[in-house]
């Protein structure tokens, strides 16, 4: 529970990273390092060296959590176990998975029986910037032959996940005083048809259906900003978009589709529209491409066998609806699969995970270390 007791809201990961580094050293990990993924935002990497001759495994979990809802009815940083639920800030996304990975590493480290291959823990900051923390740890040498990402999947096996296009759309107008509105150009007004066009575009984007990722692309208009004062004609209006994509879709092509839609609106609806579409800084810092790994990949088969052994049942395979760091691991030639505790909607007031689900994840991670690294 101490992982949830430390505030690591996006941008404030340092205290938790330093705390985990101290813990990992106390358990006897051979190599522990704090890596500055971004200024004042370290990630923690650890390696428990094997006896030799085995494959190495990475367990990846991010430390940063989203800003908290104002609707919490309990102290989010006073984690508690009640009626089979563990409550705490960011516990579903994804401190339960990160803590379960740590618990598995601790069990192996203190058992006195090391596997043949290395066990690598990645506690990453800057996940929400697109895997910046994972990239920095991989670049520092904290890599392995395969990885398990511990993002919340209700303890199902995730071999595919959506990508994303984070876009900003800015309409440009001309500032003027309200009394001389006719001499200005209201950028909020020229944004209005674009909002409707985006809602129509969501169902018009082309894609190939995916068996593990039901439905088509998901488009969310997340923020809107425009104007400076009530008595000024606004010269700028900006919206931000989060478009979740199927593996068959290309983010750059989706951006071009948005641009083409806006140009058609300019021709057909309002010739005053002057808009620019860009990828947001959060996308550019780590492009959110979609991910797939074959169901018969060695790491997937190993995890399948482990889940069957731990749970006594055949595992369920689901697509992961959000973006995971296994894309970044793949960029460093580390094939990965997802398995972790936590259920939708992931970020919610009085966030919790089921205790039984968390404990099962610990058992699965420990068994996966033994299965893969031997």
Per CATH, what is the topology of the largest domain?
A: Aminopeptidase
Widest β-sheet, arrangement of strands? 1-2-6-3-7-16
Q: Element order, helices and strands? A: HHEEEEEHEHEEEEHEEEHEHEHHEEH
Major beta-sheet overview: 6 strands, mixed
CATH class of the largest domain: Alpha Beta
Q: What is the global morphology?
A: elongated
Instruction: Compute the CA-based radius of gyration.
Output: 23 Å
Rounded to the nearest angstrom, the distance between the terminal CA atoms is 30 Å
Q: Total domains, how many? A: 2
Helix content: 25-40%
Query: Which residues form runs of ≥5 with pLDDT under 50?
Result: none
CATH architecture of the largest domain: 3-Layer(aba) Sandwich
Structural class: alpha+beta
Count of individual beta strands: 17
How much β-strand is present in the residues? Answer: 15-25%
Detail the topology: elements first, then pairings.
Elements: H1 2-5, H2 14-26, E1 31-38, E2 41-48, E3 57-62, E4 80-82, E5 85-87, H3 91-111, E6 119-124, H4 132-139, E7 146-149, E8 160-161, E9 163-172, E10 176-177, H5 187-202, E11 218-226, E12 232-233, E13 236-245, H6 251-268, E14 275-279, H7 281-284, E15 291-292, H8 298-311, H9 326-331, E16 336-338, E17 352-354, H10 355-373
Structural notes for this entry:
There is one protein chain. By secondary structure, this protein is α+β, with helices and mostly antiparallel strands. It folds into two domains: 2-161 and 290-373, Aminopeptidase; 163-284, Alpha-Beta Plaits (2-Layer Sandwich). The chain contains ten helices and 17 strands. It has helices at residues 2-5, 14-26, 91-111, 132-139, 187-202, 251-268, 281-284, 298-311, 326-331, 355-373, and strands at 31-38, 41-48, 57-62, 80-82, 85-87, 119-124, 146-149, 160-161, 163-172, 176-177, 218-226, 232-233, 236-245, 275-279, 291-292, 336-338, 352-354. The strands form five sheets. The protein has a six-stranded mixed beta sheet with strand order 1-2-6-3-7-16. Strand 1 and strand 2 form a beta hairpin. Helix 5 (187-202) packs across helix 6 (251-268). The radius of gyration is 23 Å and the shape is elongated.
